[in-house]
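EI: anyone free to look at a 162-residue chain?
SC: sure, send it
EI:
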Amino acid sequence: MLELLAEVGTVTATEAAARLGYSSGLCSFHLRQLARHGLIEEAPHRGGRARPWRLTRRDSAPGTSEEEAFGNLARGLEDESWQRWLTQRDRAPAEWRHDEAFSAVAYLTPEEMRRVADAVRRALAPYQDREQRPLARPDGARPVALITRLFPLLSEGAGEGE
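SC: here you go
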């Protein structure tokens, strides 16, 4: 959504849905979430029901890069989506009421960690074009959050060598 806004300047939920292949309701939700976190704002418009949105110009906190600020926002939205799923999954169709959440701890070198991340990306690659190409989606396909976080576990007060 942010890439779309950066590309076109302003967008409504309906326009985003047409471009991204999602429902306008889902796009509206995500636009409101991005606005809530201060990344976008309503753009001036001439009335009517259409609500155009645009990127906001924000200064990051001192010492925070744009990439780090976006990463923090993305993780917050991921966590929020997970919590929403946990509280609302009983309302999902029966075949969608389960999830495939799991976690693991593995002892890896930095290079091995990069290889694991690359393997996950390769495993997902055959499905990535479905976001931009709705006709490539099989019947019954729905958006599914795929979240992978690989990071070293540090002991309390860990130094550079741990």
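EI: The two ends are 38 Å apart (CA to CA).
SC: 👍
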